[in-house]
Amino acid sequence: MLLKYISAACWMALAASAAQPLPELRVEPTAGGSIFYIKNGSTEPLTAYLIELVDYPGSYYAMWQDDVSTPMAPGAEKRIQISNMTVGAVPDYVKMQAAIFADGSSSGMPEKVTQLVERRRFTLATTRELIGRLEKAQSAGTAKALVIADLRQWAGSIEPQGRPNRNSQTTINQAAGRSLIADAAAGLDAHSIKEELARLGASEKALAASKPPL
Predict the structure, then answer these.
(1) Ramachandran region, residue 104 (left: φ > 0; alpha: ψ -120 to 50; beta: rest)
(2) Which residues are paired to 52 by β-bridges?
(3) Residue 133 exposed, middle or buried by CB count within 10 Å (0-12, 13-18, 19+)
(4) Are residues 93 and 122 in the same domain?
C-alpha cells in the first residue's frame, strides 16, 4: 500500500514538472442562469477540471467535472449552461482552479489538483461498490424497484452531518458519491439492471486506467 502511494506521489511530481496550461474559461450571463465556455488549449485531451466562484462575499459555487471516458480534445471548446445566476453576474470572481489531462499531467493550484485526483479515486471505489450491489441484486432476482429504493437510501446515508466544510476532501467526495449513486438509480428507472451494469462497468474500466494512477 505504501509503495502504491509513493508511486502515485512520484507520478504527480513528474506530471507537475510538465504542467499544461489551464483551460480557458469565459463566463456569460443568460436568462435564468449562466453559461461557461471552456476551451482546452493544451496538446493533451482534458479529462477533469474545477471551476470555482472565489472570494465573492456571501456566495459560493463550484463545478467539478471529471470525464475520463469522453475527454475534451485539444483545441476543443465546450458550452455548459447552469442555473446559477450569480456566476454570470460576477465573471471576474469565477476561476478555473485546476485541470487534469489524459496523460496524467495537470495545471492549476496543486492542492486543487490533489482534490480532483482524490475525488476520482473515491468515484472509482463507489463505482465498484455500485457494481457489486447490482450484481448481487441481479443474482438474487431482486425487483428493480427495491434496488432503486436501496440505492436512494444509500445516497441519503452519505449526507454530511452538521455544517460541512465545503473545501474538505470528505465533503467533496460525499457530494461526488451521492451524485453517482443518484445517477445509477435514475439509470435503473429507464434501463434494466444488466444495462446499468454495462454502463458502470465501462466507467470503472476507464477510471481504473486513467492517469495519474489511482
Answers:
(1) left
(2) 62, 95
(3) middle
(4) no
Mapped onto helix, strand or coil, the DSSP state of residue 19 is coil
Cell match 506521489: residue? 9
Selection from 18, 19, 21, 68 nearest residue 42 by Cα: 21
Q: pLDDT per residue over 169-183, tens digit each?
A: 999 999 999 999 999
Q: Which domain holds residue 129?
A: 113-208
CA distance 111 to 147: 37
- pTM of the complete model beyond 0.70: yes
8 A C-beta contact, residue 94 and residue 52: yes
Looking at the structure, do residues 75 and 95 belong to the same domain, yes or no? Answer: yes
- Counting the structural domains of the chain, the total is 2
Query: In this predicted model, what pLDDT tens digit does every residue of 5-44 receive, in sequence order?
Result: 444 544 554 444 357 899 999 999 999 999 999 999 999 9
